[in-house]
Write a structure and sequence with these properties.
InterPro entries: NnrU_dom. This protein has 192 residues and is mainly alpha-helical. The protein has 9 helices and no strands.
Length: 192
């Protein structure tokens, strides 16, 4: 569990700089350049995520059960993950109305993903892993909304084709992950 917690601290800690130390972040970018900042940020993120995932896998070898979720909650998770994937796509597809309306769909996607997975995972390692992401996403969303209020940007032009593409990409990614990749990568089939 120690490796997972260390990985979460590194990964989510690095991703929390904008929440707790935005002025320091801006100073580092000004002093070292945006490219150097992004390289260091990415290195920290990759190392932290790798440790968190590896450590998470280790917690599954010797689980400590806190509660045993009802099997029926798996259906709720399957349902919740569809909008999570659509919001994830919305973070990247330009000019879609979902991003224009929500502002920060990536963080909302992480919130839904983490909450949904807390519903169906009752082991201590699972609870710590997903709760850490949920708390981070809540704080990051709040900080991002505050930054948006302080520095409002011009309204984005949206297009129906971009919005439909966002939904289609999210649905296809969801289907691919739910019906194939989740079982292969995580070892737990979503359906079956």
């Amino acid at each position: 569990m120690t490796i997972m917690i260390l990985g979460l601290l590194i990964f989510l800690g690095g991703h929390s700089v904008r929440i707790f130390a935005e002025s320091w972040r801006q100073q580092q970018i000004a002093a070292r350049g945006e490219g150097t900042w992004k390289l260091a940020y990415s290195a920290v993120a990759v190392i932290g995520l790798a440790l968190a995932i590896y450590g998470y896998g280790l917690t599954r070898l010797d689980p400590i059960h806190i509660w045993f979720p009802p099997m029926g909650l798996r259906h709720a998770v399957a349902l919740l993950m569809l909008p999570a994937f659509i919001m994830l796509a919305a973070a990247y597809v330009p000019r879609n109305a979902i991003k224009a309306k929500l502002g920060h769909p990536m963080m909302l996607s992480v919130k839904i993903w983490a909450f949904a997975h807390l519903l169906v995972n009752g082991r201590l390692g699972d609870i710590l892993f997903f709760a850490a992401f949920l708390v981070w996403a809540i704080l990051a969303f709040k900080a991002a909304k505050q930054r948006s209020r302080q520095h409002p940007s011009a309204p984005q032009a949206t297009s129906l084709p971009a919005t439909l593409a966002t939904i289609a990409i999210g649905v296809v990614a969801y289907g691919l992950f739910a019906f194939y990749l989740h079982g292969v990568l995580i070892g737990v089939p979503v359906f079956g």
